[in-house]
Amino acid sequence: MTRFTTLPDLALRTLGGAVVAASDESFAEKESLVRPGRPGFRPGTFGHKGQVYDGWETRRRRAPGHDWALVRLGVPGVIRGVAIDTAWFKGNYPPYATVEAARVEGHPSPGELAAASWTEIVPRAALKGDAEHHFEVTGELHATHVRLNIFPDGGVARLRVHGEPRPDLSVYDGLGLDLAALANGGIVTGCSDDFYSAPHNVIAPGLARHQAEGWETARRRDDGNDWLVIRLAGRGVPRLAEIDTTNLLFNAPAAVALTGFDGEPGTAAPVELLPRTRLQPDTPHRFRLAAATPVTHVRVDIHPDGGLARVRLHGHLTP
C-alpha cells in the first residue's frame, strides 16, 4: 500500500467533507464520493434510473466537454496523495481523470469556487474499471477544495484525499481547544500496532459508533505495551485529557499514561502529563493534567494492549 494512504482522508464526510457541486449526477449522487467505508454493490438492484451504484455516475455525454465534481475538504491541509476508486463500475467507468486543488478562504459558493485559481495535482491519468488508483502528490499546496475531472463521463465510487491537516486556528485566539483533534490539525505520527483499526481514529470528530471506529491493537504476547504519538495542532499546554474506551467491552487497556514532548519524541525531554492510571471498559474517562509545560507532541501509552475510542487533549495554544 502506498505510504500516503496511512494519512487521514481530508475529504471524508465524517470529517466534514462535502461534494458541493457537480456537472451531472443523473445515475448516482455526487455525495457518495466522500462516504466512509468501502463501496457496496448488489447486482440486479434497479431503480427508476437503472442499476443502483454506491458512487457518483453521470449520464452518457453526447456533447463536447467532460464531467467534474467540486469537493470541500472537511479539514484543509497539504495533500500528499489521492485515491480514485472505480469499484463496481466495469462498463461505465471514465477512461481518464485529473485532480485539481485550490485554497479558497471563508465559505465560498460553487460559483466562486468555479472562478478560483486551480492547480493540477494529478495530471491526466488512465483509469481502469473496478479498481483503486493511487496518485502521489508533491509540493506544499495548502488546499481547502479539490476538483475531480473525469473524461468524458462515467462513474467513480470514492475519492480519497490523503494529507496533513492544516486548518486555520486563528478563530481560537484566546480560547481553549482540543489540541489533539484531527479537525484542528492534530495528527498521529507513530504507533506500535494498528492490526484492527487505524490510530488516527482516536482523534476523529464525534463519538465512535462501534469499536472499529477507534484504535485497536493485536493481543500482545510479550512484556511490552502499545502506544501512539500525537503531534498536536500547535505548541500548547494540555490541561484536561479525555480517554474514551466506549465500545471496548472486553478489549480495553488496563491502564493509560500520557507523556509530553516539546519537540520530536526521542530528542526532546519527556514531561509526565498523566502517570500510569487505571481504566475501565466502555467508559469515558476525564483526567485533569497538572503539568503546565508547553508541548508539541503527546505519547499515549496503553498497558498492555487493547483499544481506545477517542483521545481528547483540551488546553490552550502558546502565543
Automatic annotation (TrEMBL):
One Gene Ontology term of the molecular function aspect: allantoicase activity
Pfam families: Allantoicase
Reaction(s) catalysed by this chain's protein: allantoate + H2O = (S)-ureidoglycolate + urea
High-level lineage: Bacteria, Bacillati, Actinomycetota, Actinomycetes, Streptosporangiales
EC number, UniProt record: 3.5.3.4
Keyword Hydrolase in record: yes
UniProt keywords, alphabetically: Hydrolase, Purine metabolism
InterPro entries: Allantoicase (IPR005164), Allantoicase_dom (IPR015908), Galactose-bd-like_sf (IPR008979)
Protein family (similarity comment): Belongs to the allantoicase family.
Domain Allantoicase: 16-165, 185-317
BP GO annotations: allantoin catabolic process; purine nucleobase metabolic process
Pathway: Nitrogen metabolism; (S)-allantoin degradation; (S)-ureidoglycolate from allantoate (aminidohydrolase route): step 1/1
Species: Nonomuraea wenchangensis
Gene: alc
HAMAP family documented for this protein: Allantoicase
Protein name stated in the entry: Probable allantoicase
